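The methods section describes the discrete structure representation at length, but only in general terms. An entry of this sort, consisting of the sequence and the corresponding backbone structure tokens, reads as follows.
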Amino acid sequence: MSAPESKDISGTETQPVRTNSNPSVAAEEQSKKQWWHRNKKAGSDGGANAPPDIAAVQTEEHEVKRPWWYSIKEPGSALQIITAALLAIAIGLIVTTQVEKVPDAARVIISIPGDLWLRSLKAVVLPLIVCSMLLAVTRLREMSNGGSLLAKWVVGYYLITTLVSITLSCLMMGLVWANQFKEVGEESLRVDDEEESSVDTSERPVHQVVLEMFQSFIPSNVVGAMANDQLLAIIITAIIVGYLIESPQSPIIRVTEEIERMITKIITWLIKMAPIGVFFLILPNLMKLDIGEIGLNLGLLIGGTLSTMLIHILVIVPIIFFAFTRMNAYSYWIKISPAWVTAWGSASSAATLPVTIRCAKARGIPATIYKFACPLGCLINMDGTAIYLPAAVTFLAATQGIKLGPVDYIIVALLSTLASIGVSPIPSASLVLSIMIARSVNVELTGMYAVIVAIDWFLDRFRTAVNVSGDLFACMIVYKMTGIEDPTEVVDEEAREEDVKEKDASNRV
């Protein structure tokens, strides 16, 4: 016997509650419940594939969609974050062009709110990564073949897109931009004592750098790795611990889930403050930009790097995305804008991870996928970094009058692949790596390296935005290709969380 349908406070019909003892009927009802919750999160209007008994409900939900500008009232919305970023850019450029030099004290004071917000985000990154990876690996163990399938798709996709981005960068730099750079005089090539002391110029063989990268996989001290934010070692440790937990009812799992819920509440409040944080992160950095000192070579470096990144994220990745998902990549990219706008403001994939996970959840991607792919992606999926490294090496070579050949670019591509996978997801982590790669093709460190250092803070923001966008594109591709769904208890838990949020929103109204 079935209970009649009921309506919630918004007038939307809810699913009928049945107490049928037939297992097939119960399974069908559970399947419909999962379908309903997944499509509600993804914002889908169902179409021809919608179950007939909820098609009318979806039509009703589709009709009450609010206009795109309505989210400007919602704290931490994409529109608020984008508006804050544009406002900071406008004010920063006005101040830079009207004031000869902004006092350092003024920039430091203005940066305080943004710095505090960024530090708060970084504080929750480590426990978030540990909890996400541990729970994701535990769920993968419960799946028969889905676990290995998910790992193969995620790691495989990340490696392929990294190779594609590096190949694109080498081709663009070698065929287009290398001939545009101008050789500079000896005075510009001279390395000042102050510049040399600020950069690690010690000779480090390539094999030593590669050895250190692999040694970072396994920490000699787990507690020390956590204290020093060695994220790669922490992720590998969390994967091993998650694999060794035999029972999904283990007390460790329950404690981890409770910690994750606490972190989620903290992240929710931090995301609501994202527009303020992004504004005060961007504004002081733009105030130190001296437009009058940007020469031709520096303009070409910026133009070459940004144009290659745009080709990758707006042409190549959308083609791959459409080929696997048959979805509109540009519409999807706009919907995940809170993540890449926050990445642009913070210049840190790790600090953006809470927002990245929130965007993946909002797009209807199962937690099993995004809790595994996003933390891993912020470490090994560095497409923006992979594009930048060949550009920096080509810039250093061309300004010295050195023309790199095909063999040199192959060496640069191989080393950039390893470097981009092992680079730390923190601001400006690529500076030292660019020196190592340049020296591997006999390009010496000159005074022009100071130009790269001076503008790295600006390019680093675009690199991070490309990296984070790639993580979220990967999540949806893996979801569509593997068809992996969350276990029933995870769907039920998320449904309860959504109901609580809707009731809270209704009470505030």
Remarks:
- The chain has one domain: 76-496.
- Residues 1-25, 41-64, 191-202, 505-509 have pLDDT under 50 and may be disordered.
